């Protein structure tokens, strides 16, 4: 299992290497477009038509890639009440494993739903009103994020299983400060 976790850690490092700069560029693009829109509307009294649709398409990607990074760091919203009501470390780890398994099943459902949405968007050929950008550009962010959620949940499931089977190991050996 350690070889598989090492492979996952390598893939994770590549993903983070790709995602973080993309998020930076997208964030800068949104900030620039918002400032440009405010400037042209308030100062020049000539609003830029279509700017909002560009921001919407790009914002979908920033939301989804940000959610992927939260999933990677396991910092997304959770309700870890088991540690409050139970002090047995083995039971806490079993519940953590169960929680990860349920999350993975939900993520797989999200993959199928987002794939269907993407396929529907491609088949319908819908586009934005001003620039005629295909809607599947933003819809594809849901599918990509869902696939990456599954990747990180599989990693978490393996790490949780490893921790349960080998007490004393780190809960998430594939996440380190070096990877962040």
UniProtKB/TrEMBL annotation:
Q: Which InterPro entries match?
A: DctQ, TRAP_DctQ
Recorded protein name is TRAP transporter small permease protein
* Record text on subunit structure and interactions: The complex comprises the extracytoplasmic solute receptor protein and the two transmembrane proteins.
Per UniProt, the keywords (alphabetical) are: Cell inner membrane, Cell membrane, Membrane, Transmembrane, Transmembrane helix, Transport
Q: Where in the cell is it found?
A: Cell inner membrane
Q: How does it sit in the membrane?
A: Multi-pass membrane protein
Q: Where are the transmembrane segments?
A: 48-70, 97-115, 135-154
Extract the PANTHER family matched here: 2,3-DIKETO-L-GULONATE TRAP TRANSPORTER SMALL PERMEASE PROTEIN YIAM
This protein's record includes keyword Cell inner membrane: yes
| Every Tripartite ATP-independent periplasmic transporters DctQ component domain range | 31-161
Tell me, in a sentence or two, what this protein's role is.
Answer: Part of the tripartite ATP-independent periplasmic (TRAP) transport system.
Annotated family: Belongs to the TRAP transporter small permease family.
